[in-house]
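Students often ask why we bother encoding 3D structure as a string. The short answer is that it lets us treat folding as translation between two languages. Here is a chain of 164 residues written in the first language.
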Amino acid sequence: MIAQWQQEAESDFEQSGEKVRRFYELYYAAKSWHRQRKIIAKIEHTSKGNNPRYIVTNLTGEPQFLYDKRYCTRGDMENRIKEQQLALFADRTSCHYWWANQFRLLLSFLAYILLETIRRVALKDTELANVYVSTLRLKLIKIGTVILRNTRRIRLLLASSCPY
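And here it is in the second language, the structure alphabet:
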């Protein structure tokens, strides 16, 4: 259904040499669907070739707006949630009591806000300005330490330098 649009995008790319990105709206019904549904098609052609994407939606609006402002931002939000769960252990709610789990989630949330603020403010215009939270945690916080313990004291031997 989109072959003609892909061919147009490919020929426009060959003429200009720049990435071509267009959005179209069409209606389609798979065999298992009871009715036709609105499909947003993103047709993109770059030096790597065709890169079509599709969204099935019932939202009204311009196709590019729906793709860029609704679909992509939602995906970005889901990536931030996944980032918090994996890098800051927001999924660890194994306590028997609700308040303990709520407190763990709150600490994870505060850690995310702190790292996001560090990335946005302190690391602006650096190589770490756009990295994932897990990378920030690894490069800025998670630094090796040797722990020496004897009967009278505990000594922490931190590294004298850090590559970051």
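Translate back mentally: Residues 88-157 form one domain. Keep this in mind for the problem set.
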